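Contributing new records

If you add data, match the layout below exactly. Sequence lines come first and carry their own label; structure lines follow with theirs. Keep one chain per record. Anything else will be rejected by the validation script.
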Amino acid sequence: MRRRDLVLLTDHSSTEGSRQVLAAAARMLTGREPVQLDARHFMTGGSGLVEPDDAGGIRLMADDRAVSADTVIVYEVPPHRRRAFADCQRRLRGCAARSLGSDAEAWRAATEKDATLARFVRDGVPHMPGTVFSRPSPEAAAEAFAELGGDVWARPRIGTGGDDVFHVTTRTRLAAAARHYARAGADWLITRDARNVLPDGRRHQYRVVVLHGSVVRVVEHVQADPDRPCGERRGAVSRPLDYGELPEGLARSAVAAAASLGLDLVGVDLAAESGGVVLGVDVHPAFGLRDLEQVALPYVAAHLTD
């Protein structure tokens, strides 16, 4: 690696905590401290600049600071801010920065759930059918609800972590969800329930992290309340698994989802009970210290390989 700085570009308002683990991975692999810049400077209306330097690398300028780099690790940018960050991604790509986070179109396809569904339909990725709404009439919402079997999950078109997600099994709940999204001014969608429930009634799914077409981490989630999203942030219990413990077909579905979206790294949620369908994707699967060796180190290393 040339003696330029490695930049870790993240949204410093995020409390997710991944950037600390990525910084540790960068230190371990390079022997140096990465330069941490706040991605908000490089969003629409921000003062940050990205430009080529005179030595074949790039220069990032923000907050009265200039950094010369050739490697930029982009992470932990919340979904609602990704469109505002797209111009920076295009500049990074135009300057030939070594970065796995410079594909704005891939981010959009994975962040905006209607775009995700369209990609999966196009590429034959197994998923649960759904309908996207923008302030639908009660009749239109009810018709789509009935067509999907009267048992669906409602979620915002752009969201993360199970926020504002509801299990809807009656028209009364559907109307309440519609009012919720209308108050927030948010487009939303409903998708058919995957029936991913264990015999004892607990909700059940898998999180598979894919890097460059290979599975690097597998976690099983079990949620005691089948009406709540099945993720750790919503109280699900997680258990890391070896690759061989993943039910047959789920790895193929996860890799296919990553390829369909065009992402180098992605967290994919799947249900084995419905034949390995993809339930959702995460552009930035959260890192904890337990993920240092399995995910953070190989992800940073992928930026350092010419």
